[in-house]
Amino acid sequence: MPPILASIDPWILSFSAVTVIVTIWMGFRSAKTSKTASDFFVAGRSVSVGWNASAISGEYLSAASFMGIAGMVMSSGYDALWYPVCYACGYLFLLLFIAGPLRRFGAYTIPDFAEGRYDSPLFRKIAVCFVLFIGFFYTMPQMKGAGVTLAYIFPGLPYWAGVVLVGAVITLNVALGGMKGITLVQAFQYWAKMFAISVPIFVLMAVYGHYGKQLEVNGNVQRPTSNAQSSTNATNAALDVGSSTLNVERFSLPEKSKAANGSIAISTSVTLPVVDGWVTIESPSSVAQVEQRIKELVGQGQSWRNIGDAKLISVLMELSEHEGRRVVAHTNLDLTRMLGNMTVDQTNRLGAAMQLRGFLASKDVSLLETRAGDILAVQKKQEAGYSAALHAESTAQMLRKPLPEKAPKDETWLSPFGPLTTKAAKAANAAPRWNLSSQIRSTLVDPHGSPPPTLIQSLGESVEHLVEGDISAKPKPGEASQFVDWTNMPTNEGRSLPGGFPMLAMLREYGLLAKRPVFVATNLPRSKLFIAGSFQSPDQFLSYLESLFLTNGVRLDRSGDVIKALAAADWERYVKNPASVVLVPNRPFSINLNSEARFLFSQYAEHLGKRAFMATNLPVQPVDSTPRFTEVMLVPETAVIVERTLSERGITIIPAKDDEVWAVPTAALAQYQLPRVNERAMSLLYTYSLIIALICGTAGLPHILVRFYTNPDGGAAKRTTMWVMILIGIFYVFPPVFGVMGRNLFPELYSGIGAKGTDKIVLELPRLLNEKYAPLGSILSGITCAGAFAAFMSTFSGLLVSMTGALAHDVYGRMLRPKSTPEQRMRMFKFAAVLIGFVSILLGSLVEPLEINFMVGQAFAIAAASYFPLLFMSVWWRGMTMRGAAVGMLTGGLCALIAATLTNVSNLALDKGPMGKIFSGFAGMNDFWAQHPLLRILCEQPAIWTVPLAITLMIVVSKATRKDVPSDVRMKMLVLHAPEKLGLKQEYIQEHQGGGH
Amino acid sequence: VLAIAFGAFVGYNTARPMHDSKSEKKPDMHSEEFLHSLMRKQLKLSIACALSFLLVVLGLPLANYFAPEFMAQRVFGFTLTWFLLGIGFFPAVWVISYYFIKRSIKLEEDEVAEVQPTEKQL
Q1: How many CB atoms lie within 10 A of CB A142?
Q2: A978–B82: do the CB atoms touch at under 8 Å?
Q3: What ipTM was estimated for this complex?
Q4: What pTM value is reported for the model?
Q5: Chain B CA closest to residue A216
Q6: pLDDT for A82-141, tens place per residue?
Q7: Could you give the 3-state DSSP secondary structure of residue A311?
Q8: Is A895 helix (H, G, I), strand (E, B) or coil?
Q9: Which residues of A touch B76 (CB under 8 A)?
Q10: Considering CB atoms only, which of A722, A877, A973 is closest to B97?
Q11: A35, A130, A432, B44: which has the highest count of C-beta atoms within 10 A?
Q12: What is the distance in angstroms between the Cα of B23 and the nearest Cα belonging to chain A?
């Protein structure tokens, strides 16, 4: 614990703690003054437009808005901007089609409306289910926000611990009766969040450059260079450079890291290395040595030195010596050119440098400063171009740090149709996709002419022709190590060898070192092994290899004359009955590359342990009768030799499936290949689906509508909506700025996963200011942490209240125990709160690898396919029946729910952490997605088909059950649409009660 | 798109009774005709606003798709499309919602005025 405590930033901790305490305190204080739901609504009606708009905005801005958008803009770029825009613009649809009528109808929640519109308590129960479905999908990202924030405040705290802690505190708070949706608390939280997101960003922009400037450095670095290039190209063309060593890229700056790719001869004795057209001139003496020499010269009474007929190279060398810096000269300067006579003042080091600079300027050599502090020597005519290039480089470097490998490239990040929306299509295009249709398959035959053998059978048979000579042959004494020479292991401790080595090759290596033959089980893992570390002796390397095999699921039986390697999972079986594991010698075997194609191919397939199929029209070529044997190892990597031999004969091998290879004529390859997916078109589809989900989803979120009743009249309600759109619209400008700045200033987060990934950029970015103005960075980071707490606490408690209400009131109070007493219901409320809190924590701790914003988008997609069609159609079409509404809502909503769940589990299966293991059963789905990118997109963003599906079903089923249209539908529609001033609502209630009793 | 299609559908259904009720001077607020005209006017306004919004929100991806170079030109350091989506979008929506609120409040007042005098005479 002490190291954890020591690394906590006190500023961040105190700001966060204050927010939590104030929120809970305000919740309890306000809860005392308004105890019941009706109190809450009545009290709300006295609230002014400004307060009410703030409260609605406060409730709406969740962890997704506060943290998720910035994280997603950072990770995915432009496409992520659709989220904030549609979160805000969804309110317009709500305003245009739903808010007004629903307010007139007087239904506080969607289940209330569902019951009232169709006079059906049953339908209410169906509608309630989606409060829970959408609610759980909405709480998962809030929980992730909590886990990320806590893991940031307390470095070293595991993600799940943060989720449990925050989840438990809020659940307890809700169960004890605090945190009702109180206007004042919610309004306060809006302004807290607005303050927390905007103030740090303004400070950051003042220090590091404004929004546009931050964006400009992405993908635009080369621009000033190319402009300069075009303006000076004419002079360059006219200039006869004459030198054959001249580099073509005129304004590319020298790079230190590259190896020399040429050399330039200065005199017969001196040759300087050239890197990409630049030659580095470095004085052999240090500044101290020069100073010492000057002292000696002055002591001897010498003050002037005539350089004589100096060559350019000597003058540059002199300059390097006097300034104590490197000079990097372009190779198009003729370094051996004679510059003529000059004399320098030897007593003053920098004075001499000044003289040298003046002399060089008079000889058409310009000197520029690089960012690294070197002197750049170029032709005077090219000075403008290089100074522009240097300027561009320095502004770019000032504004951004180098991007790690994992970060998307500038071009894709900045432009529409980037990584977020093209992921599925890109995955599909990464490898050629094979046409696996039954039509194509029917043209293929098994080379054996019989049903394909099972894997073990085929390998068992193959032992006969794999093995040549004496099976138990020991390695020859002088047999060279084929893959790894342990003596050439890297000397850097802890470095991995790039690429890795096939497991079987390493086992053979092991056998060579241990001087015993190795037999391997046919089902041994064929993974690659990575070697790390340096080894002083063969024994050390041997024991290292043993541990490496063990950690990669291979156990060795070293008891006999030979070493047997088998899968760790088979060990017990093997100990009981050694014959149960098929072992083959792990040594090179020979194959005849001149043998007939069918035979060669089937050998190849057996080699890989795969089933073989081949086209009937394989090209037949005369086979050279002289056998051409090649010795190969039984590893997939060496199968390339066979592939190459067959391709020379016009046959291509297709890895059609995991356990199948096909041999087809190269000429007809196209017919076995599916066309490439149009990435941009797919991306457009994704974008539209996302837009539909977010816009329709906002209009169908269960907890948003309630707030429209806390206004004195319809006019005020509309003005409130207007203000909400302004308040959240302004808010949503800021989070993307964090994402953009994060890309430039904090790219390290691209390499982080889960709680250490881009989702925490809002929290972490302000801390950069500590470099310049400590402790300002900590204070601002504390403020954003406080804002994050406000965001996930308000949304999570709001959701918990509405979900608990649905469970306790509708499920328990109406379905299970209609006759329960108020005390029982109160107890049930507390129990339900704890139950839902527990499930939320459980779900929340599973979703660390998923992006916050993406998960909220899924909740919107489910709302868009269930509640939005229900509300929209019920308000505007009188022909709707209860059954139509129920069928449409259930089908659309469940389809979206299933699609979202499938996407999430397959994404979680990709995780490298613990979640990947838990969900590893779903890993196979990703191969399916790669084969069917369109289905993947339709599952990831289901709104484009689920919303029309729900609406169509509603129309069709309602038409079929036309006789069930509520009898008083005209009155209901009047209440929904006639101005409130006409007082139809009261009339309707009276009529309804009269008729009902 | 959905809203437009649905609007056309409802508009067609509700348009017919209007012709019959032209001669009637004092609409009864419980009558079928009043409800139809009410819903039609409201839906017309909502759809007009939704259309202008959808034109922008669905048009931008199309512009990105068909004119990528044009949308990638720099405006104050932003690309044009980033500027439109990240900043320019919000005011456009405010304008639409402001127009809608103005018109719908006016619409309600007209409706009340249309019905109420007849009630007073009664």
Answers
A1: 32
A2: no
A3: 0.81
A4: 0.69
A5: B77
A6: 999 998 888 888 888 888 888 788 776 788 888 888 888 888 888 888 888 888 999 999
A7: strand
A8: helix
A9: 212
A10: A722
A11: A130
A12: 22
